[in-house]
Specification:
alpha+beta; three-stranded antiparallel beta sheet; two-stranded parallel ribbon; single chain; 5 strands; 2 domains
């Protein structure tokens, strides 16, 4: 049973939200605890981080204001350079490459440096457990600081923890 337009299913045990009823809460594993609730938002249209509806009509790129966007510098000069001066808050960066070339190590270093600069970070891995990430962090010269880690692949659960 899918949620009606403008509704979600909330777990009465842990409060996690799910877009459809599944019998079992993905976040806490409790059975038959999902209750349908209205969201107050119109259904069928995604809502972006800023709260604006993402179904806006296209505009000319030249008409879009581009200034005033700050960046978080990671302290890794080449990485910051590739990103145009650092990570744009709210952006998504896809890092790809062959297995074993250091993607996870690079991103764990970035997360640790951002955390030390006062930026709260959540490192989510769908392939490594928190214990494996700790072993990786211990091998690095960078102290992992207060980086939060999560071993998870389900988007709903990741969004629940990131909120």
């Amino acid at each position: 049973m899918a949620a009606k337009a403008g509704s979600v299913f909330r777990c009465s045990e842990c409060g996690a939200e799910q877009p459809k009823w599944g019998g079992r809460c993905d976040a806490c594993g409790a059975w038959n605890t999902l209750v349908e609730e209205p969201t107050g938002r119109p259904g069928g249209r995604a809502v972006g981080r800023s709260g604006d509806l993402t179904g806006r009509p296209p505009v000319r790129l030249s008409a879009v204001e581009g200034g005033g966007v700050g960046r978080w510098r990671t302290g890794l000069a080449e990485f910051d350079f590739v990103l145009g001066g650092g990570v744009v808050p709210g952006s998504v960066v896809l890092v790809g490459g062959e297995p074993g070339i250091g993607k996870s190590t690079l991103l764990l270093q970035c997360a640790a440096r951002l955390e030390r600069a006062g930026v709260t970070t959540l490192y989510v891995s769908g392939e490594e457990s928190p214990e494996q990430l700790r072993l990786r962090a211990d091998r690095l010269a960078d102290d992992p600081g207060q980086v939060h880690v999560l071993g998870e692949t389900r988007l709903e659960a990741i969004l629940h923890h990131a909120a």
